[in-house]
From TrEMBL:
InterPro entries: Cyt_c-like_dom, Cyt_c-like_dom_sf, Cytochrome_c_Oxidase_Subunit. GO terms for molecular function: electron transfer activity; heme binding; metal ion binding. Residues 9-98 form the Cytochrome c domain. Residues 1-21 form the signal peptide. Pfam families: Cytochrome_CBB3. It comes from Tepidimonas charontis. It comes from the Bacteria. PROSITE patterns: CYTC. This is Cytochrome subunit of sulfide dehydrogenase. Keywords: Electron transport, Heme, Iron, Metal-binding, Signal, Transport.
Length: 99
């Protein structure tokens, strides 16, 4: 019986570490956006703030940049570096930030 407890603990710890790593990865991606859109999407005047925006609208903009449907100076190149799922995660992250 004692053998199961350390194994269960190890499995739960591994799952927690994996979940934490996934959350941190989205924050790493979002940090790249801070150059123009501010920390956690709180932009300086003159730039578009992303914090608290509608998730679906953010995702659509990102996908439009990626496909070339929406003109841009750098966003079309930056968005091509992410999969659609990664863009979806970024949109959800910024939407969850307080304005």
């Amino acid at each position: 019986m004692k053998m199961k407890t350390p194994l269960a603990t190890a499995v739960l710890l591994g799952a927690a570490v994996l979940a934490h790593a996934q959350v941190d990865q989205v924050k790493v991606w979002a940090a790249a956006c801070a150059n123009c859109h501010g920390t956690n999407g709180h932009a300086q005047p003159g730039m578009e703030a992303l914090a608290g925006k509608d998730k679906d609208e953010l995702l659509q903009k990102l996908l439009d940049f990626k496909s070339g449907r929406k003109p841009a100076t750098v966003m079309h190149q930056l968005s091509k570096g992410y999969s659609d799922d990664e863009l979806r995660a970024l949109a959800a992250y910024f939407a969850a930030q307080k304005k």
